[in-house]
Specification:
CATH architecture of the largest domain: 2-Layer Sandwich
Distance between the termini: 70 Å
Number of strands: 17
Helix content: 25-40%
Number of helices: 12
CATH topology of the largest domain: Methyltransferase, Cobalt-precorrin-4 Transmethylase, Domain 2
Structural class: alpha/beta
Radius of gyration: 30 Å
Bound molecules: S-adenosylmethionine
Number of domains: 3
Order of helices and strands: EHEHEEHEEEHEHEHEHEHEHEHEHEEHE
């Protein structure tokens, strides 16, 4: 018989009888997709693996505990033949042929009338990969092609914009602390599909260089704000671009809702009637200490961590932070935006009861190639910051957790 390529098709099996012969590992691998497709599955097999048995117990399939018998495939729309008895497999595929039931054979792809593709899913599409003909069948290769496509779509390295379902609007994407690998899979995909990206100074700036040339990249710090406040100007830019029917990504450092003013943007977009999705990000408050070898909690050392903004000094009337209470806590303090005010902060913590010997670490530009960790104590931190010229952005960690990890290489 001349070798023709298989004809790919998607079977809609909801409520339709599908017969599976053999309850071993092949059935175990294939049954979940048949169940997910809504098929009315009957398994014919004297034995089954514990997972297959569990599917029967859960009522997801009907299990007839016996060997294959002539007539089992009558009325079936589709069959999977996977018993350990070659004669039964041959007899069953002959029956399938007579009844014109498409059938997959686990033991003999040549004699099968259908092949199961390597499948994967990504945001509303199913990727199904088949080898062109029986001679070239190489299941590992088809699985590898499937994995490459699914992974590429998930992480945005394969760009396939949604044209029909893509709705204009804004995605507020947490970009993580700076390392381009630390953005979420969803964030990266949305970035790859954007028409316009409005980005902050912090976050994975390297990703911007990878965007296709038609994508308009706007530096949020450079948006002219004339009579507006900077934040209002950013909100207006988001609204304007979305109103032009564009797909806009607002790329922020860390997580949008951790000192990121993310909710102000969500509110402004809601008021303007513009759809907005929020994609959480890895906040620098946890990831930057972690990248420098500092756990924010540790068994027997710290049962809590508190993330605090240090952008205004403790004695500043605009401060919303109860520093005396923080001084009395025994857990970890993580301070963002605190480099300039760390002297005053350390002084206040000591004045309200924290030991001057409490370890402090400052991690500058965490997760990037320029990451630097400087250690001190509450008593010495102000002088250390000056002497070592520590600059923002830095995360400051105060507490015994600073000392629990292996000492960083000098
Ligand atoms: C305006 S806040 C934004 C925080 C961000 N939304 C987050 O969840 O990480 C900026 C502060 O985050 C900290 N920060 C952000 N990225 C950092 C990094 N890669 N290394 C050190 N500190 C960082 C610094 O304290 C910086 O001043």
């Amino acid at each position: 018989m001349a070798e023709h390529p298989a004809y790919p098709v998607g079977l809609r099996l909801t409520g339709r009888r599908v017969v599976v012969l053999g309850g071993g590992t092949v059935a175990q691998r294939r049954l979940p997709a048949l169940i997910a497709a809504g098929a009315d599955v009957t398994l014919v097999s004297p034995q089954a693996t514990p997972s297959v048995e569990a599917m029967a117990e859960a009522g997801e399939i009907t299990w007839e505990r016996r060997p294959y018998a002539e007539g089992d495939l009558a009325d079936a729309w589709y069959a999977l033949i996977a018993t350990s008895d070659p004669d039964a497999n041959t007899a069953a595929s002959a029956e399938a042929e007579r009844h014109r039931v498409w059938c997959v054979r686990s033991d003999d792809a040549d004699r099968a009338t259908a092949w199961t593709p390597a499948t994967g899913h990504s945001e509303g599409v199913t990727i199904a990969v088949l080898t062109t003909d029986a001679k070239g069948r190489d299941p590992r290769h088809t699985a590898a092609v499937r994995d490459a496509v699914v992974e590429g779509l998930r992480d945005g390295t394969l760009v396939a914009p949604h044209h029909r379902t893509r709705t204009p609007g804004v995605a507020l994407v947490g970009g993580g602390p700076g390392d381009p690998d630390l953005i979420t899979v969803r964030g990266r995909r949305l970035l790859a599909e954007a028409d316009v990206v409005i980005a902050d100074r912090l976050g994975p700036r390297d990703l911007l260089a990878e965007l296709p040339p038609h994508v308009e990249v706007i530096d949020a710090a450079k948006i002219p704000y004339g009579r507006y406040m900077a934040q209002e100007a950013i909100n207006n830019a988001l609204i304007e671009h979305a109103r032009q029917g564009k797909s806009v990504v607002r790329l922020k450092g860390g997580d949008p809702f951790v000192f990121g003013r993310g909710m102000e943007e969500v509110q402004a977009l809601a008021e303007a009637g513009i759809a907005c999705t929020v994609v959480p990000g890895i906040s620098s408050s946890i990831s930057v200490p972690g990248a420098a070898g500092i756990p924010v909690t540790h068994r027997g050392v710290a049962h809590e961590f508190t993330v605090v903004s240090g952008h205004v000094a403790p004695d500043d009337e605009r401060s919303l932070v109860d520093w005396p209470s923080l001084a009395r806590l025994t857990g970890t303090l993580v301070i963002l935006m605190g480099v300039d005010k760390i002297g005053k902060i350390a002084e206040t913590l000591v004045a309200h009861g924290r030991s001057p010997e409490t370890p402090v670490a400052l991690v500058q530009e965490g997760t990037t190639a320029a990451q630097r960790r400087v250690d001190a104590t509450l008593a010495t931190v102000a002088e250390t910051v000056r002497a070592e010229d520590v600059r923002p952005p830095a995360v400051i960690v105060i507490g015994e957790v600073v000392s629990v990890g292996p000492r960083p290489a000098a």
